[in-house]
Amino acid sequence: MPHPTAPTAAPATRTYTPPSPLHLGLILGPLRRGPADPTFRATPDGTLWRTSRTPEGPATLRLTSTPDGTVRAASWGPGATWFLDRIPALLGEGDDPAPFAPRHRLLAESARRRPGLRLTSTGLVLESLIPSILEQKVTTDEAYRAYRLLLHKFGEPAPGPAGGQELRMRIPPDPYTWTRIPSWEWHKAGVDNKRASTIIRAAQVARRLEEAAAMEPVRARARLELVPGIGPWTSAETIQRTNGAPDEVTTGDLHLPGIVGYALAGNRDATDDDMLELLAPYEGQRHRAARLILLSGVSPPRRHPKMRKVNIAEW
Fold first, then answer.
1. Cβ-contact 147, 134 below 8 angstroms
2. Coil, helix or strand for 170?
3. pLDDT by residue (tens digit) across 112-166?
4. Separation between Cα atoms, residue 6 and residue 77, nearest integer Å
5. Residue 246: other Cβ atoms inside 10 A
6. Which residues lie below 8 Å from residue 123, measured CB to CB, with a gap of 6+?
7. Which of 55, 210, 247, 249 sees the fewest Cβ atoms within 10 Å?
8. First vs last C-alpha separation in the chain
9. Alpha-helical runs (H) found in the chain
10. What are the start-end ranges of the E strands in the chain?
């Protein structure tokens, strides 16, 4: 049942002074599932808004960087205090980039240009797991559309001003609601039965999966992969966001091996094995290395047609 929170209710606030300069967009960007993600908004003044279903209830978080490097935070909803307490982890305070030693000029230059990059750790598994499941074997546009439609249909308005008509942000459904979505609603959102069933199975054991956020990354991924339908690609994409895991590189991706292979060795046809061999010098920091490659913008010229879009909602 939605928690009524008046849009004009005073937020809980906090000021966070990071130990080193940081860039909010670089840190929190991986949490955004497309430009119309109803759980994430970036306004022209550089303010970032984010919503979550925390262990203490729904919450909205607003983050603003100040010229002196501090971050001002405001939060609304039953989970506001939990959200504010998590700000250091969310903004990568537990992430140490010091062990990363670039051995390729491209990586050295990418890291130099982005001193404010840190790896976020949300501490919330289901909210990153479900969008990752939706992204399995489809285009990102299709997955983003499905997530947006499902949240607007089965989520709830975000607490505070973010839930108003200007931002129209939403809180993701709770685990029970995910399990109760009718088959025809999945179909209307363009989600096939395989992905829908995987989400339902994950939601049914949500409490056990949420425990993975406090685990060492390898064990955390193993916990997630106990659920049928969750494999190495999905577990890596999730744990990168929830645990701030610098070494959990994504395998099984359609594009990443070719991007890494092209950037580091001119090999646009690189396989997962080739990619892992190229990233071997960065063991312990392989996800950071891959992220810096993606941020560099270097990728092979498009040669093959994009993955064909298949909207099952039109069948």
1. yes
2. strand
3. 999 999 999 999 999 999 999 999 999 999 999 999 999 999 999 999 999 998 9
4. 9
5. 22
6. 86, 89, 90, 213, 214, 242
7. 55
8. 33
9. 24-28, 80-85, 87-90, 105-113, 126-134, 140-154, 175-179, 183-188, 193-204, 206-210, 217-224, 232-242, 256-265, 272-279, 286-296
10. 12-16, 40-42, 48-54, 57-65, 71-76, 156-157, 170-171
Instruction: Give tens-digit pLDDT for 22-73.
Output: 999 999 999 999 999 999 999 999 999 999 999 999 999 999 999 999 999 9
Residue 97 vs residues 101, 114, 284, 293: alpha-carbon distances, Å: 9, 11, 11, 15
Q: What's the order of all strands across the beta sheet hosting 48-54?
A: 12-16, 71-76, 57-65, 48-54, 40-42
Token couple for 52: 């979550």
- Residue carrying structure tokens 């999966």: 209
pLDDT tens-digit profile of 205-251? 999 999 999 999 999 999 999 999 999 999 999 999 999 999 999 99
Distance, C-alpha 250 to centroid of its chain: 13
**Is the predicted pLDDT of residue 303 greater than 90, yes or no?**
no
Residue 313, Ramachandran bin (φ over 0: left; ψ between -120 and 50: alpha; else beta)? alpha
Classify burial at 183, counting beta carbons within 10 Å of its beta carbon; exposed 0-12, middle 13-18, buried 19 or more.
Answer: exposed
CB 208 within 8 A of CB 220: no
Q: How many CB atoms lie under 10 A from the CB of residue 267?
A: 17
Q: What is the largest CA-CA distance in the chain?
A: 55
Distance CA 64, CA 145 (A): 28
Task: Read off the tokens for 289.
Answer: 């290395």
- Do 124 and 52 form a contact (C-beta atoms < 8 A)? yes
